[in-house]
């Protein structure tokens, strides 16, 4: 029989600060029900000045390296759309912070929020060629829209780290991929901008078209029928969209889309993203983490995963939960990462957003603010200096 390949371990971390949507609503005069019910968002993670995609990525991956050791990791693939350098892969800093051995290849991949799913597929191929090796896949992003724009309420930040291996403890990647690419300008970020540009309504339409398109391709390639899935993890730029996505999927299948069905399939996946906000590449993997931790009856069950990256590329895959998965989960550490964030008021959030790091290469030390294990300590000669905190 073919060796099972999939996710052996899964861990996520977020930032040290949190802005609650009640506070955002108070400051901009929005009815908070729009955020809670209309978008399904309650809070957003906000980075301190010394946190970025590298520090989050290393913090997310550290528990994996501690549990399994570094020796079998031969590849690190870091997916992000909020990269810190146009040339050097952020994963090289992570490799260094984690003390991984030199005999490792490290690359960065990008296709908006979809990148980590591509990384997962690359990892599966590498493990297929050499089943002794493990691949560290990391999704790390900080989402930023213009201040006072409609997207602002959907910001967030997190990193998810996955160890991909043969004979995985958590999830086996099974069956075909459903793929869907369409050249659309729904969301993008030119190199000279720190914040994304977005056509909000068009982005939702493009996303929902991709749900239908990738599902149809999945089925055409012999994928499982709707009834075989216990739950569906959708990319969650805001959690309400996952429910809309599932409704669209059910309609594509000609199935009943009543509230109970939607709740059963989607509600166990949204808990972390409701309070972390959009973590772009990491979002669908926070949904996956949530469902594994929320449901106690998943041994051998199938979960659907829909990954969407604006621009746009989408993929639908099925994963089968491995018997005994529960004893490998990290629910306490994840609840702690989310619960330990320090609440800030709107003025503090705005101050952090308006703070710009120097771009002239001058020496600049950052205040120690993070509560995480790694920090961006300084900038010097156009270089970023990271350290264990
Ligand atoms: N009580 C309850 N609900 C309310 C409400 C109230 N007082 N006021 C408004 N609502 C509801 C609205 O009826 C609406 O619901 P429906 O979607 O069911 O119609 C919902 O709240 C949102 O209201 P609006 O449409 O008026 O919201 P908006 O104009 O502020 O924009 C948005 C919403 C377009 C999603 C905006 O937040 C945005 O641009 N976000 C960034 C882009 C994004 O996340 N796109 C998702 C697809 S793209 C993608 O997936 C990639 C990615 O990660 C970015």
Automatic annotation (TrEMBL):
Residues 258-322 form the Hydroxymethylglutaryl-coenzyme A synthase C-terminal domain. Coiled coil: none annotated. CDD domains: init_cond_enzymes. It is an enzyme of class 2 (transferase). Residues 5-167 form the Hydroxymethylglutaryl-coenzyme A synthase N-terminal domain. The keyword Acetylation does not apply. Its EC number is 2.3.3.10. The keyword Transferase applies. Signal peptide: none annotated. InterPro entries: HMG_CoA_synt_C_dom (IPR013746), HMG_CoA_synth_N (IPR013528), HMG_CoA_synthase_prok (IPR011554), Thiolase-like (IPR016039). Keywords: Acyltransferase, Transferase. GO terms for molecular function: hydroxymethylglutaryl-CoA synthase activity. Belongs to the thiolase-like superfamily. HMG-CoA synthase family. This is Hydroxymethylglutaryl-CoA synthase. It comes from Streptomyces ortus. The lineage of its organism: Bacteria, Bacillati, Actinomycetota, Actinomycetes, Kitasatosporales.
């Amino acid at each position: 029989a073919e060796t099972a390949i999939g996710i052996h371990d899964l861990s996520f971390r977020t930032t040290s600060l949190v802005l609650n949507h009640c506070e955002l609503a108070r400051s901009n005069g929005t009815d908070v029900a729009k955020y809670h019910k209309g978008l399904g968002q309650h809070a957003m993670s906000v980075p301190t000045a010394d946190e970025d995609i590298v520090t989050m990525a290393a913090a997310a991956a550290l528990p994996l390296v501690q549990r399994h050791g570094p020796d079998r990791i031969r590849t690190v693939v870091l997916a992000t759309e909020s990269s810190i350098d146009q040339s050097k892969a952020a994963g090289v800093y992570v490799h260094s912070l984690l003390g991984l051995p030199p005999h490792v290849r490290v690359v960065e991949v990008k296709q908006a929020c979809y990148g980590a799913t591509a990384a997962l597929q690359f990892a599966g191929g590498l493990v297929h060629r050499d089943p002794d090796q493990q691949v560290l896949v990391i999704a790390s992003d900080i989402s930023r829209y213009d201040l006072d724009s409609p997207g602002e309420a959907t910001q967030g930040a997190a990193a998810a780290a996955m160890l991909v291996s043969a004979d995985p403890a958590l999830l086996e990647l099974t069956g075909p991929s459903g793929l869907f690419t369409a050249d659309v300008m729904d969301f993008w970020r030119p190199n000279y901008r720190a914040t994304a540009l977005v056509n909000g309504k068009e982005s939702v339409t493009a996303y929902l078209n991709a749900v239908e398109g990738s599902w149809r391709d999945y089925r055409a390639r012999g994928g499982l029928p709707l009834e075989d899935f216990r739950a569906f993890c959708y990319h969650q730029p805001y959690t309400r969209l996952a429910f809309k996505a599932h409704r669209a999927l059910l309609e594509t299948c000609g199935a009943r889309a009543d509230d109970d069905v939607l709740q059963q399939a989607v509600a166990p996946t949204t808990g972390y993203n409701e309070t972390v906000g959009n973590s772009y590449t990491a979002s669908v993997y926070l949904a996956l983490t949530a469902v594994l931790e929320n449901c106690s009856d998943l041994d051998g069950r199938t979960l659907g995963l829909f990954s969407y990256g604006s621009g746009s590329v989408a993929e639908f895959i099925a994963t089968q939960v491995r018997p005994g998965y529960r004893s490998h989960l990290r629910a306490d550490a994840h609840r702690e990462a989310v619960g330990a964030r320090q609440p800030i008021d709107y003025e503090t959030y705005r101050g952090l957003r308006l703070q710009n790091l120097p771009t002239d290469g001058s020496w600049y030390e950052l205040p120690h603010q993070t509560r995480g294990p790694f920090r961006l300590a300084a900038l010097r000669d156009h270089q970023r200096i990271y350290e264990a905190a």
